[in-house]
Structures are given as structure tokens and as C-alpha cells.
Amino acid sequence: MTLRYMRAAAAIAVPVLLASTPLYAADKQELSRILSEIKTLKKAYEGRIATLENKIKSLEQKKAVAGKKVTPASGGRAIKDNSFNPSLGIILNGRAGSFSQDGSEIAGFGVGEEGERGREGLAIDESEINFSANVDDKFYASSTVAIVREEGEDKVELEEAYIQTLPDAGLPDGLRLKAGRAFWTLGYLNEHHAHGDDFADRPLPYRVYLNKSFNDDGIEVSYVVPADMFIEFGGGIFRGDDFPAGDSVSGFGAWSAYARVGGDIGDNQSWRLGAYTLHSDVNSRATNEGAVTFVGKSNLYAADLRYSWAPTGNARNQELIFQTEFFHRSEDGTYNDTGAGTGAVNFDDGSQGWYAQAVYKFAPAWRVGARYSQLLAADTPAGLAESALDSAGHDPYTMSVMADWTNSEFGRIRVQYNREELSDGRDDNQFILQYVMSIGAHAAHAF
């Protein structure tokens, strides 16, 4: 009912009420008093209606003003919401280390610069700056810059710079393209940044076969099958400049393929199994501080298995993780150890490496772990005897134990002990104290 109709109803209702009131018991004085009160009530009623009408008009005017679009003086540039603003994250990684041996040569294997043992004493380890965001509704982009200390100087290295399709990119469901420079799909650890590992250093196979990680320039396609269990396969083409390749001529010097499956066992167990291969043309690959070079073809095969169990059903409180990877590398080409003056020596053989580890979270902030890694060296060609590639019948190995405290997802402190025997009769006892601190946004932890 509008105010106009309410006023008319009141004007009609008052006389009717008076007419229906019995007046035989009232005199003129009483009637005058009643009429005076009615007049006062009517005046007050009309005043309240006028006030309400003014309030309604004022609200309608404010609504009209708010509904108008105001164009800023800077022009008509559309400002998107912050879902497209870059997320910035910084990883601070430091350590203190003590070693009982001066040298860290791995008998029978050529090792790249990144795969060598870390520095002794106090040191800032590899720190990272990451920018990432959705470019639009079809692409995601990320870039990671690492700051490292090499030969007494701080150097900036571009670890990752890639784009990746989003589900709305128009590709079939489950299909994804990734292009640029990235830690590609090859085994379990390679996709992860080193600061996210369960140990302060990477196992021997990663140090020897991948120079700690493979992040060549390239493009990778992957497809997740729409099924009840996890099924994924894919592959990539790469430039061929990054270890284990080197000095590409064509710009298409390496390619990979992989497949992996996984699933859940009940409500508190999960698993994943994968198989991978990487084939590279090597025009020149330098190892052992440039003293050893290889030219030829390098074929790497890998398999991984990861199993996790949360006894209470809540992995944040308690969890056991078992993880293992196996590598086989076959090479056909020539090795040249300039330090030993061997000249070019033909090589056509293979070697293996593997590791197994278990990490147990017994409280929300505390974990302990153990790891064993080993390399099985190839037979040393006669021309490489007493060179850096001469294993002398020894298979290098490392045993590691660690304990870490995680105050939050942004900060972790770890203590670790390694016992390495990288060459015959040279036992190296290592103690490492490490901290990993994160500032700003950081990616979710992968399985």
C-alpha cells in the first residue's frame, strides 16, 4: 500500500469511527476535546508521512548516482581482478657443512659442475625468486631466477621460464602443453626444485646423470586419461644444450617420453609408478671441471615408485613415505680426458644408478628419514685406465640420515649426516645443517 492510499484511508476512517461512537453519554465539551485530539494525531501522522517520502526520494537519488559509470581521467583501460596479478615468492636457502675428505671425485663417472659436492663451511646455497600468474583464461606463466655462488662470485641463472595451457585453452580435456625452460618430467625428483627435497642434497644418480636436474629449453605435451585411477603419458622435444646433452647444432638435440600410473589404496594410502626415457645427441659435454669431454649419443632410462601412508588418515599429523628411482644410461661415442692426456677413446657401454629412501613424519612439525644411493660403474676402457673415468672396480655409494623441523609451510630447519665412499678406500663423513625459508607465495607441493 502506497503512502497516498494510506492517507486517503485515514481520512475516511476517522469520520466513520466518530459516527459509530455512541454520543448519547457525552456533552459538547467532551466532543470538542475528542476532536482536538484527533486533529493533533492527524497533523502528527501527516508529518511522519512527509518525512518518509523525503527519505524515499533521497535513497532513490543516491541509487541513481551509484548506478552511473564513472570513467577515470586516465582513459578507458580495463582493470582486471588480481587473479592475473603475478604471485611473487622468494626462497632463502643456507647451510653449514663439514667434510672429512678434501676431494669429492666420483670414480668411473664424469660429473658436471652442479652435480659436484657442495661447499664446506658456512654458505648461502641456491636461493630463488619466482614470478607466476595466469596470463589470461587460456595460459599460465612462471619464471624462476636462481642466485648461486660460483668461484667466489654471485651469479644469476634462469632456472625456469615457461608458459602452460589452462583447461579453458580449447584443447581436449586432459591434454596440456608446456613450452619454454622448465624442470621436465623425468623421474620423480626432476620436476621439483631442490629446496623442496626431503634431503639437503640430491642422490648420486641425479648428480651424475642429470647434473642435479634437467631443465633444457623445449616443449612438452602430456595427457591425463579420464579414468578412476591416475594414468598419464607424454613426451617432449628439447634444444639439446643441457646436461646430459650438450652444444646442440640443430636446436632439436634431445627428446623424451614417459608414462605413469597411480591411485589410492583405501582412505589413507596412495601410490604412483612411472617409466621415463631421454635420448640426447651430444656434440660436446664437459665434466670434471672441463677436464673430461664426451661426444656421441646418450640414452637414459628411468623408473620411479612412490608410496605414502597416513596411519591416522591425516597426513598433516603423521605420514610414512617410501620413494625409489632406478636409472640406466647407455652411451656410444668418444671420451677424452685432457687432464690425463688419454686422447679420444671409443666408448660403448652402460652404467646404472639407484636410490631408495623412507621419510617418517611422527608429529606435525617433525620428520626423520634415511636414504641409500649407489652407482654401478661401466667397465673402464683400456685407454681410460688411471683417468677420472677409471672406476678401479669400485661402485660409489652414499648413506644418509636426516631430521627436520617444520615450523610452518614457509620454514624448515634440517640436520643431515652422509657417509660417502665415492672412490675405493676414501670414506667421507659429512655433517650438514640447512635452513629453507619461503617469503610470499609458493607453489603447492606435488605428490
Break the fold down into its secondary structure elements and pairings:
Elements: H1 3-19, H2 28-67, E1 87-99, E2 121-124, E3 127-134, E4 139-150, E5 153-165, E6 175-181, H3 204-209, E7 217-224, E8 230-238, E9 254-265, E10 269-287, E11 292-309, E12 319-337, E13 344-363, E14 366-376, E15 397-408, E16 411-423, E17 426-440
Antiparallel strand pairs: 1-2, 1-3, 1-17, 3-4, 4-5, 5-6, 6-7, 7-8, 8-9, 9-10, 10-11, 11-12, 12-13, 13-14, 14-15, 15-16, 16-17
Order of helices and strands: HHEEEEEEHEEEEEEEEEEE
What's the total number of strands? 17
Q: Could you say what the CATH architecture of the largest domain is?
A: Beta Barrel
Largest sheet: 16 strands, antiparallel, barrel
Shape: elongated
Give unreliable regions as ranges. 16-20, 68-81
Structural class: mainly beta
Q: What is the CATH superfamily of the largest domain?
A: Porin
Helix content estimate: 10-25%
CATH fold label of the largest domain: Porin
Average of per-residue pLDDT values: 87
- Total number of helices: 3
CATH class membership of the largest domain? Mainly Beta
Distance, first to last CA:
64 Å
The fraction of residues assigned to DSSP E strands is over 45%
Walk across the major sheet and give the strand order: 1-3-4-5-6-7-8-9-10-11-12-13-14-15-16-17
Taken together, the total number of domains comes to 2
Radius of gyration (Å): 37 Å
